[in-house]
Specification:
It contains 9 helices and 7 strands. By secondary structure, it is mainly α. Strands 2-4-3 form a 3-stranded antiparallel β-sheet. Strands 1-5 form a two-stranded antiparallel sheet. Strands 6-7 form a two-stranded antiparallel sheet. A hairpin with a 2-residue loop joins β3 and β4. The protein starts with 23 loop residues before the first helix and ends with a helix.
């Protein structure tokens, strides 16, 4: 029911609704973008914000053949650091690099031992011995004949280019296999050795330290022997 003023009373003025504070973030959606002329003015409008400018990012570059574009891959720097110290012969290191280069999406390697030997230009028996040594450290394991799997924490290829898709008129396509899915599948396989299911480089670190200590002791012994021979010659 509307209130009617009595005789001799003045009607009270109509109250206007109080202005609501404008939500600048919401209103910004309906505003056209305006060029920025003064960064100091923007900084004063948002005193609690830190205003930064970043340089334009350059495109990543990878070496690869035109018919084999590179896809996303990742390698453990600690893994490279340790195997460079651990393997005293060149062939195991060369084979590790070959297996990394031949990975497909998901870390699978489709190479026979004969093909490994041919690429590295060594006898098949030598390639087989180097492969067995690499596998003994849980770096790579055999899935079936001609198919191997690189242990994902050491080196992993997430995606691979699907040849032919670039000529189909659309966007080039890639096959992607998430690392976490591959690791989960490996850890659930109880037939694999523990060093494969739960990879660790700690045994390599210990072996490197033991070898260094042994070589330091051998050098010290050679120095003592030379000193004794000098003393005998002097006498």
């Amino acid at each position: 029911m509307a209130f009617e003023p009595g005789e001799g009373e003045q009607p009270s003025p109509r109250r206007e609704p109080l202005p609501q504070p404008a939500d600048e973030a919401l209103q910004a959606w309906g505003r056209p973008l305006a060029p920025v002329h003064d960064l100091d003015e923007i900084a004063r409008r948002y005193p609690g914000r830190r205003l930064t400018l970043d340089s334009e990012r350059a495109q990543l570059e990878f070496y690869g053949r035109p018919e084999q574009p590179n896809a996303f891959a990742m390698d453990s720097l600690e893994f490279f650091f340790l195997i460079a110290q651990f393997f005293r012969e060149a062939l195991p290191l060369r084979l590790v690099l070959l297996l990394i280069a031949c990975q497909r999406a998901g870390g699978r390697i489709y190479l026979t031992q004969e093909e490994m030997a041919t690429v590295l230009d060594v006898a098949r028996t030598k390639a087989s011995e180097a492969l067995q040594e690499i596998m003994s450290h849980g770096i790579v394991f055999k899935v079936k004949r001609g198919v191997y799997q690189f242990n994902p924490p050491f080196s992993y290829r997430v995606a691979e280019f699907i040849p032919g898709t670039e000529t189909a008129g659309g966007k080039s396509e890639y096959r992607r296999v998430e690392q976490c899915e591959t690791i989960s599948e490996i850890r659930q396989d109880a037939t694999l050795p523990d060093l494969v299911r739960f990879p660790s480089l700690e045994h390599m670190r210990r072996a490197i330290e033991e070898l260094r200590a042994e070589r330091a002791a051998q050098r010290a012994q050679r120095r003592r022997n030379r000193a004794e021979r000098r003393d005998e010659g002097t006498q």
